[in-house]
Amino acid sequence: MIDGSAEALITQTPRWLDCICATGPYEDASRFYEFDEGGRIVVPLVRRRHWPAHLIARDAWPSEWGIGGPVASGEPDLEQARAVFGDLVRLPANRVSVRFGPNADPMWLSAVPSDFTTLRHTTYILDLVGGFGDVWERRFTGPVRTAVRKAEKVGVEVEVDRTGRLVPAFYALYQHSIARWARQQHEPLALARWRRHRIDPLSKFQAVSETFADSCTVWLASYQGQHAAALMVLRHGPHVKYWRSGMVKELANPSRATTLLHKLAIEDACEAGCLFYHMGDSPPGSSVSAFKERLGARGYTSFGYRRELIPLTSIDQRLRSVAKHLIGFKDE
């Protein structure tokens, strides 16, 4: 095995690494493995710059970026997977975490050593096999089809951009959503904006748009002459990911603009020959999960694994819980 940058293999992953390192406090900490019997594996880790090793975390990926995990040039065997985890567990970092998607090879999951804690997630994915006709008739629920027809009837106008031109308009709507979430959660608006800016600055969306080029699409809906809702959607191979959205609730809800945008993004994905529309994690039974299910997405179990020497993550979570209680914060 050798240690080094991802280089050739990193091109096989969704192009997150350049974006992460260009728009936040992260740097590349990827691990690259080459085996005598053949085969190469990369684990695209990142870490925070300028942090001491005993406090630092190496994550694939940071939680706000979504699912990340090992990428192989072929089909690794169990011994190779165990060798990768054996190296990760020895890294000079307080925390090492790896996140797998729902379609992860069970071989990887069986190779995880006992040093790692298992984290369970529910990830929602819409199956596009059969094309948009099947999705419309068999997977969308009746209320979704009704909402789409209503949006078309009331004259919702839609712009599509694959050049980055509409990223600022998307981001403005995202700011509206942040303000709405703050009100719902009883969180001071200044605190909400500060938190989200650290996670999702405008430069991050601009970098993603530039890096993904025409594989990044912004869908923008206007109603009564005003921007009402927007989606940012990413494509890689047969996979399309609904990544972020924003809206002005007072315009988007009565016009059903958000539902129309999802319908158009899904239809576009089908026309491009894509097979899966990823809608991210959400708790089963929540209103967000119910919306995804109405669009035909199903919840799949996916797993993350974390090795942590000093339990800074749990300490941080407890401190956040205390702070939320003090300000009357309500998780939605």
Structure description:
This protein is an alpha+beta fold and 332 residues long. The chain has 2 domains: 7-115, no CATH class; 124-301, Aminopeptidase. The chain contains 12 helices and 14 strands. It has helices at residues 16-23, 78-89, 106-110, 132-139, 142-153, 167-185, 189-199, 202-212, 249-255, 257-271, 287-294, 312-327; strands at residues 26-28, 31-34, 40-43, 46-48, 57-60, 71-72, 95-99, 117-127, 157-161, 216-223, 226-236, 239-247, 276-281, 298-308. The strands form 2 sheets. Strands 1-4-5-7-14-8-13-12-11-10-9 form an 11-stranded mixed sheet, with helices on both faces. The protein has a 3-stranded antiparallel sheet with strand order 2-3-6, with no helix packed on it. The longest helix is centred in the middle third of the chain and has 19 residues, at 167-185. The protein is globular and about 60 Å long. The protein starts with 15 loop residues before the first helix and ends in a 5-residue tail after the last helix. The relative contact order is 0.15.
